[in-house]
Amino acid sequence: MAVESRAETERQHPVSPVAADVRLDRVTKNFDDVTAVDDVSLEIERGSFFALLGPSGCGKTTTLRMIGGFEEPNAGTIYLGEEPVTGKPPYKRDVNTVFQSYALFPHLSIFENVGFGLRRRGVRGADVRGRVTEILRLVGLSGMEKRKPRQLSGGQQQRVALARALVNRPRVLLLDEPLGALDLKLRKQMQLEMKAIQHDIGITFVHVTHDQEEAMTMADRIAIMNGGRIEQLGTPGELYEHPQTAFVAGFLGISNLLPGTVSAMDAVRLDDGTTVKVPQEALRGRSGRVAVGVRPEKIRLGHGEENRLSGHLLETAYVGVATQYVLDTRAGNISVYVQNSEPGAQQAVTGEISWSPDSTFVVDSMEGAEAE
Amino acid sequence: MSTVAIPAPRARPSALARAWAFVRRHTLTVYSLLFFAYLLLPIGVVVAFSFNNPKGRFNYTWQGFTWKNWAQWDAIPDLKSALTLSLEIALIASLVATALGTLIALALVRYGFRGRASTNLLVFLPLSTPEIVLGASLLTLFLNLNNVFAIGFWTILIAHIMFCISFAVVTVKARLIGFDRHLEEAAMDLGANEWLTFQKVTLPLIAPAILAALLLCFAISIDDFVVTYFNAGNRVTFPIFVWGSARVATPPQINVIGTAIFVVAVTLMLANVVLQRVRESKGAV
Questions:
Q1: Which residues make Cβ contacts (< 8 Å) with residue A133, sequence separation at least 6?
Q2: Element (H, E) at A76
Q3: Residue A365: which pLDDT band, with cuts at 50, 70 and 90?
Q4: Which chain B residues have any C-beta within 8 angstroms of a chain A C-beta?
Q5: What is the ipTM of this complex?
Q6: Do the Cβ atoms of A102 and A179 come closer than 8 Å?
Q7: Do A121 and B191 touch (CB under 8 A)?
Q8: What integer pLDDT is reported at residue A302 of this predicted model?
Q9: Strand ranges (DSSP E) for A131-248?
Q10: How far is CA A154 from its chain centroid?
Q11: Which CATH class is domain B91-284?
Q12: What share of chain B is helix, strand, coil (3-state, %, to 5)?
């Protein structure tokens, strides 16, 4: 219910005044009796790096495949720019895809793989050579033209898949978990490289991932999907600082969520009787049962800030850059991260903690309807 | 039960133990050699007796070596026409059956349609039905069609295509099952329509299976006797010729043709294998 009302707001207030490169208008996709994508509306602005983020089965890949033309929606319309493309086959859409499995043609050389799209568009001879050479240089694979895909490492194959799509200069580039098969170190490196490439060429990227860190690192805007719907859409900062649902708060990083009841325009009474101040806009007109959230790193030890709780220490964990304390308070268990900025400066824990009202967010009560 | 307990004679095993060790070491080798002898001896006999110089009409006992049979391979009346007919039938049948079989395999693997499961089963039927039943009932069918097809070339061809299709379907299907559909999606994503996608991506990738199906169909068609015998009318294929002549004489030229067919088939199959190896090593160095 709450999600639908937010989707409504999204539609009434366009995401941005800049022209949308991709627009989904009330798109629904069913597979037999399973609804994979449920009445999703979405605008992706030109030149942005957009991420569809969510757990497996949330509908993000289906959404991407509908934009690419590999699945047709049961209802709704998809626009590329001003043009409705619903019903058009993939080869009539100005988008290119980087597949999760890369899907490089095993019987063709790297040169012919990358040149495949150009040749289909009638580009010939020296032009093909020039553009393929240029794009392979961009992704750092110069001199690999004559090799076959299986002669390359996973990371190199990933770059070929990227080059094969980018060389066609599509309106939109679709990326389906493109880094999923790479090891952690290479993945981190490719995240930054792809962001740089996107910045250089200015093509709209739509990136599907289940890795919240990857989405936060790369994307300008993120749509968090759950159960076929968009839970929340915004910049990484907005999503992290002001999650609107318990699902978003839990999916992006770690949150402390404390159940309570709205008691004033800017206050919530927690179940232990403590009243905490929250920003008025965080309540967004909610009343009754809610959950108050605060990120572990926003909490201070001691009673220096306005919102205060007391409890006793359950656990201490040293995690390198920070120390994590878990406290048992009557309002619930709370995690606190304290930066290890000075060596040996482990703080004495009195059981008193506090945080600023500005760092507080409010989500709908999780009681009864747990998202995951 | 430690070192102390080991009896001294253990150092020198008994004759029996040594014999047992010898048997154990060589059993597999001997068994393998026997197996290959069993498999290849009949072929060896065919090849050897194509160089025999028989005294009488029957080529059943070794008389002496000669090149004569190879030099005059078509000296026997009607042998050449029988061979020509067999080659024609095998060539057309394998081409048609492989083309149809490939399309059926594509439909079976790619599309969900009403009756897919039963089609899958029915395709196997000609493989499991006794040939003699198949041949006899086909003849009955052709006769009941009241000369729509004159019994002869066309009925042989139809029969051969029929039983070859099953082999072609099974061969191509095996390759298609492991086929990554994303490759075709990628081709369409890059601007290739359905036909170009098939031509540029699907076909080159299943080509080895199609080639294998072609060779298999050819080999099965060219030496089919049972079904052909029922449906040939007065036409004589090479197997029917061999059968017919065996009652009055067995000229060594039959062995010559048999050997030639064997050599060609083995050469083609080896070429296919070598070609694949070369392709793969090109992609793997």
A1: A142, A145
A2: strand A75-80
A3: confident
A4: 180, 182-183, 185-194, 196, 200-201, 204-205, 282-285
A5: 0.81
A6: no
A7: yes
A8: 84
A9: 172-176, 204-209, 221-226, 229-234
A10: 24
A11: mainly alpha
A12: 75, 0, 25
Does the beta-carbon distance from A168 to B205 stay under 8 Å?
A: no
Neighbouring C-beta atoms of residue A340, cutoff 10 Å: 15
Is the separation of the CB atoms in B257 and B238 below 8 Å?
Answer: yes
Consecutive H or E run containing A134: helix A125-138
Residue B265 token pair:
């088939």
Chain A residues lying within 8 Å of B204, measured CB to CB? 107
Q: What is the pLDDT of residues B39-59, one digit of tens each?
A: 999 999 989 989 988 887 778
As given in the structure block, the two tokens for residue A236 are 């990484």
Q: Which chain B positions have a beta carbon within 8 Å of A85's beta carbon?
A: none
Nearest to B183 among A68, A91, A103 (CB): A103
The sheet carrying A229-234 orders its strands as: A95-98, A172-176, A204-209, A49-53, A221-226, A229-234
Q: How far apart are CA B88 and CA B141, in angstroms?
A: 24
Between A125-138 and A110-120, two packed helices, what is the crossing angle to 10 degrees? 120
- How close is the nearest chain A Cα to the Cα of B185, in Å? 7
Q: What is the DSSP letter of A303?
A: S
pTM here is 0.78
Read off the amino acid at residue A331: A
How far is the C-alpha of A310 from the C-alpha of A292, rounded, in Å? 16
Tens digits of residue pLDDT in B103-120: 999 999 988 888 888 988
Residue range B176-212, pLDDT digits in tens: 988 888 999 999 999 999 999 999 999 999 998 999 9
CA dist., res. A325 & res. A335, Å (int): 6
Give the start-to-end residue ranges of the domains of chain B.
91-284
Name chain B contacts of A104, Cβ cutoff 8 Å: 186
Distances in whole angstroms, Cα of residue A372 to Cα of each of A57, A210, A223, B37, B239: 12, 14, 17, 66, 70
Cα separation, B117 vs A273, whole angstroms: 66
One-letter identity of residue A240: Y
Cα distance between residue A286 and residue A13, in whole Å: 20
- Tell me the sheet residues that pair with A232: A224
- Using the predicted structure, report yes or no on whether residue B276 has a pLDDT greater than 90: no
Residue A11 has pLDDT above 50, yes or no: no
